[in-house]
Amino acid sequence: MRPTVRRFPRPERGMISRPTVDDVYRYRAHIDRAIEELLNDPPQEHLQEILHRLQLGLPHEQQHQELLFMDIKHILAQNPLCPVYRG
Ligand SMILES: [Fe+2]
């Protein structure tokens, strides 16, 4: 039987501290290495599909980055110490 897991309220998702920053960096490095390997020697029979997915995936990832930035600004705006974002 699966344990019941209460879904965390979306407006409070900035309060969750997982995954850790180290986990995120490790995952990012793994993905970067895998993509670099793929692009250095792409299997020619899948080249069109790879290019298509990159065209679709890169703007999608960019949108994630924009949402992350919005979340960071939102969290900082709620902090009573009024911290400033320095990018
Ligand atoms: Fe996504």
Instruction: Return the average pLDDT rounded to an integer.
Output: 89
| Beta-strand content bin | under 5%
Helix-strand category: mainly alpha
SS summary, helix count: 2
Distance between the termini: 45 Å
Q: Describe the global form.
A: extended
Structure summary, number of beta strands: 0
Hetero groups in this structure are: fe (ii) ion
Percentage of residues assigned to helices: 55-70%
Question: How large, in whole angstroms, is the Cα Rg?
Answer: 18 Å
How would a textbook summarize the main sheet? none
Low-confidence stretches: none
- Strand-and-helix sequence, N→C? HH
Question: Describe it for me?
Answer:
With 87 residues, the chain is an all-alpha fold. The protein has a domain at 46-78. The chain contains 2 helices and no strands. The longest helix has 32 residues, at 47-78. The protein is extended. The termini are far apart. Fe (ii) ion is lined by residues 60, 64.
Sum this structure up briefly.
With 87 residues, the chain is mostly helical.
Any descriptors?
87 residues; mainly alpha; binds fe (ii) ion
Detail the topology: elements first, then pairings:
Elements: H1 21-40, H2 47-78
